[in-house]
Amino acid sequence: MSTYQLDDHKLLYHLEAVAAWRRGQGHPLAFSIGPTRSCNYRCQFCAYAYLERRPIFLDLQRVVRLAQDAAPRGAKSFFFSGDGEPLLHRELPDCIVAVKRCGVDVALNTNASRLTPEVSRQILPCLSWIRVSVNAGERRLYAGLHGTAASSYDRVLDNLAEAVAEKRRAEAGCTIGVQALILRDNLASLPVLAAELRKIGVDYLALKPFLPHPSIDYRDQIAYDAPEVQEALRQLEALAGDGFAVIVRWRSLAKLPRRDYQRCLSLPFFVDIDSNGDVYPCGPMIGNPRFCYGNLYEEAWPAIWEGERRKNLEKYMAEQFDCSACMPNCRNDAVNRFLWRLRHPPAHVNFI
Q1: Are 90 and 60 in contact (CB under 8 A)?
Q2: pLDDT surpassing 70 at residue 210
Q3: Hey, is 159 helix, strand or coil?
Q4: Exposed, middle or buried: residue 178 (CB in 10 Å: 0-12, 13-18, 19+)?
Q5: Model pTM greater than 0.90?
């Protein structure tokens, strides 16, 4: 098992929240926040390609107030990611510092094009981890997959190197990781990427399957179970060393697209908030008003969470919603598998 446990859930370390859930109570542990819908890339595989790209910037003072309200109620983490490139919001570094002061762990997903040394210096001491999306080990391929200039590849690697140097200088505890999708077009370039990242000194390269959102057109034809693909991934794992890990998400690859549960039970533990301030049960629902709990500009967080709309939606998802058409292996998937087993135990559970 990887130290980072990227392919599983960590709800076992929050059993008091699980006990509250079984009593029909509780509060989200994890908040995902989209600071902006603006993005300087046009990635072919973007899960939010169905959304109109507009320069929407969330009022991050509301996010700080959200953290102040949510932390005393049991929130554990805020993850800045969402429907655009988070660091295009110029106030995000200050927000990260303020949210951390509220007593929750903070993480960031970014393309790192704006992860300047100044930004790294400010945010790395406040982050538990930062994950950078880099989906090729060659400049032109990177440009084509990410919808940007070839020079962006060099800038991102330079920014990563500066971030690693700043982490070491400040003795920050932030884990610096890179994530790449396993695609037919990029597989041959991933060993080059791994070698570059090991030289830079990042903590890991994680390799995961492409998860198609039902509303986007991009599809990849790679067969993850093909012997040549499996062998290429094993060879990538062998490139680890010197404190650098290569994490192939084998369990995610193995369980696509099968779900062994019928309902989405994980919603009490997660919340996604987009750049409009709309609050959703999960990322794939962003933009669908049918699944919106409320809006941070219109109501304070306690009113949204305790409101009848949120409670009714959660009940509908847990009892009626057919999740078979959702994104395969979504972020909530591992938690759903665990909770489904708790709610539907096998025979003879007392013979442990």
Answers
A1: no
A2: yes
A3: helix
A4: buried
A5: yes
